Each structure stands twice: as C-alpha cells, then as structure tokens.
Amino acid sequence: MEKLTFDTVILGGGPAGLSAAIYASRGAVSTAVIDVNMFGGQPSNYLELENYPGFQIVGGFDLMEKFEEHADKFGVHKFPMQEIQKVDLKSKTIVTNEYEFKAESIIIATGAQPMKLGVPGEKEFVGRGVSYCAVCDGAFYKNKVVAVVGGGNAAVEEAVYLTKFADKVYIIHRRDELRADKIVQERAFKNEKIEFIWNSVVKEIKGEELVNTVVLENVKTKEISNLAVNGVFPYIGMTPNVEFFTGQLEQDSRGFIVTAENMSTSVEGVFAVGDVRTTPLRQVITAASDGAVGAVYAVKYIEANKEAVSA
Known about the structure:
CATH topology of the largest domain: FAD/NAD(P)-binding domain
Structural class: alpha/beta
Helix content: 10-25%
Strand content: 25-35%
Distance between the termini: 34 Å
Largest sheet: 7 strands, mixed
Order of helices and strands: EHEHEEEEEHEHEHEEEEEEEH
Shape: elongated
C-alpha cells in the first residue's frame, strides 16, 4: 500500500470539500481531496440551481465542474473513487483500499444523505419504485403517478420537477403547511399536476415487482388509507455521513459534527465543513463558505505547528 503525506487531507469532494481545497492550496500547503465517488457531491445530481450568486440558473453538474476546474488550477491532488477503510482523527491517518494518507490537518466534508422513512417496503423497493433522486430517476416515471414525502424545499422542488414526466404527483406532508420557501410553495400550488395530502405519514410501501401502493396514516384522525402510486420519493431531511468518525469527536444528538465558528472540531487539527456539521442552513453556498473558513484556519493551524517545530 502506497503511503502519501500532505499538509491537509480533505474528506469529500462536494462544494464544501472543493472550496476548502481551493483555499487550502492557495494558502501554499499541500492539499489532497479524497472521495468515495466522483467529485461534485449531491449538487451534481441537481438539474439546475437558481440561488447560487452569480448564476441566475446553472446546472448542478456544470457548477460543480467549475469548482473542480478551479481546484485543478491550484494543483490540488485528487483521489476519487476511494474505498475508505479507516480514519484515525487523532493521528491524522486515513486508510483507503489503495493508499495510506498522513496529514497535519484533516478537513471533514463528507456531507449528508437523504434520511430514510424507515418503513416496511422502503428498503426492499429501492430502485424498483423508491428513489431519493428525482433528477436521476424522474424519466422512469413518464405518464405515471408518484408520491413525494416531505414539506421542505427539496421535497417541493423535486415534486415540481417530477411533473415534467409524471401525470400526477402527490406531496405527502405530516403537517398542514409546508416548510419550503414561499416562492417554491407558489410554484407547487399553481401546478395542476400536484395534489397535497396533509397531516399524513407513510406507514408502509407495497408492491409486487414494482411499487404500486403506499399506506398512509392521518396523524390527527389515525385513519389508515391506501394510495395507488408507481413511485415514492422521500425528502424528509438529511443524516450526516459520519460512519468513520462517530465516537472520535463531538457530535450532536442527530450525529452532525459540532464545530466552532472557525469550523474546528473537538479534535485538534480537525475541521468539519458543509452539510456534515451542525448548521442552520444546508445549501451549496453555505457549504462553499464553510469550506473557505475551514481551510483558512486549517492553514493557520499547519503554519503554527511548523513554526513550533522549527523554533
């Protein structure tokens, strides 16, 4: 196994990780970015973004491609498609299937993933009617009926997107009003293909080879009903990708990494940026901002250590 040493190693190649890479490499420290997939993170799956400053509308993949090209300009070392086997934050060591990385500082930018409903049938029908990415799978539901579960921006925006293909889109929400931004809500309310099912939760997903029914419970009346659908898209929140860090640093009750204002964690020399940390807003712009802050302070940490050694 090849052993590699860098001043800072960034775990995650999404907007937070790539932003951190740009700022760290500009700070004249050797920088590596590791990802279990190709670079770009979740935004690469977004059809378009309209709230990233400077771009009235931009494709998610196109935007992240520009992030990566910017990182390339500063000579960032990139290691995509790495199977992470072990991370020791205290010793700043990361082991993958190909390399052993050693660093002075680690920046965690592993992001978060869609939270699961946790109901019978969900796991069994993934890829056969259950999907967590409308952009990826929406075209499979042309002229069909689908249900989106959730009431935030992601749920409502994806529901509107799915109307490009589906004949009917239900939005199932456990409350009687949406949490999405008003402009997003207005688009959904105006869309004739969208129907709202309020005060309801999914209790089970049923089907044979493919999904054909969701079982709903009204949270107020406790009434149980069946809804005929061909697909289910849960958008009920996010859970952090912290499998290799849990127990090594401070986390909140949901597992998100607790950070200070400068993105430092409870482990010296380890920073966390983007969706993986406790934050009031999870957007591309906030992830990129976190990456900049975390990298600047990681560079300061590295420089201070080098000065202490040479003193």
